[in-house]
Amino acid sequence: MERILQENKSVLFALYPEWGGFMPMMALAKAFSRRGWDVLFVLPPEGDEKLSLHSQQVEHYKKYIEEQGFQYKLLRPFPKRFGGMLTQTRRETEILANILEDTIKIIKECNVGLVLIDSIISFVAIAAIESGVPYVGVGTAFAGFINSKIPPSDSSFIPARSSWSSLIVLLDWMLLAFVARLFITFRPKYFLRYYFGIGAFVRSRARATGLTVGFSDYGPMFKSPLHYLMPKRLDFEPRPGAEYLGCVVDLSRADEDFKMDRLSGTKPLIYCSLGTRSWEYPASKRFFRVALKTFQQRQDYEFVLNIGNTCEVEDLGEIPDNVYACKWVPQMAVLRKSSMMITNGGMNTIKECICLGVPMIVLPARNDQPGNAARVVYHGLGVRGDLRWIEHRELSRLINQISSDKSYIKNIEQMQKEFMRLDKFETGIDLLESYIAA
Q: Where does the sequence pass through the membrane (predicted)?
């Protein structure tokens, strides 16, 4: 390994810029750093949020990366305006070509020996292969290819060991593929993008590098072994050919101390958050009002309500005395004090809850969250509801269900012990390093 370190000093992380996927990738980066590797991140440029892949958070990523002593490289700025549909198709293709060109340049200039790629942006594998550097597809969500036993990650269906269950799972996959085909066929923007824009561009470059594309629940994705930053125990069942690298939660993360002077600290605490992108969910503001009504009636608890950028705290009206409402909290610090969490079901949050022994009420909004909620229920780690329609009586009932049934605490503590006992994280790093040796 010493020879490899001398020849290829850097590991490059290409990540999809959302906080829930960023934190487990950061835990992975710290593990590589402890083994003597230089760690480098590639980030989208600052600018318009829609054109820069959620780049309003880029400053947060840059700050956090610098605090950990790592380096980052920014991609070249994206154009601010696209014009008409044909111009947009052409510009999107140019952007993708620039991303690959910039990544290839970074790989060569920074002596990169391995590229770790979030499976959501698997197209970056083209840059790695064209640079002659090994790459690894990393799953920060339970996304994957068609499987008769595991539904798509956006499905709320809980599979069982029966032929009927397999049929329903396959129908779920068929429906997903059918809807995707409808979009491509009948929406001009997607038709142009798939046949003449970035879709055609990626297929052409992929053929030249020997990559094959398969249909996944996150759209077209290159077929290569997936390495999930989750424990095998948390999935419905192991996926053929997949590697599970363990929990990958940085429990040593130094979240700042969080003082809740408004709360007495004498009652059990419930933490409520819809994640870092709650402002994108149409139902979030309505839900926060429902939550406040529920919390006001539940004087047996105290609550921390994290509303993110959905609105200002003042927009929600009067805040009950037993509620601390704010736009941001250090999540790990609050979870350590909590007896329960109300969450939208981001995978990183679910893993943190399990590691800290906190049962969950999961109200999924989109993407992989329905599938994550299904796994929480499947393993008896919590309950789920519907974010769009939930009312205060139903939310209060779910709180009662968690608090009155001790099996949730028992199950989550058992899962917590298994996480620690079966954690393959260091073994997983060995596996990733072996790709460089190969």
A: 164-184
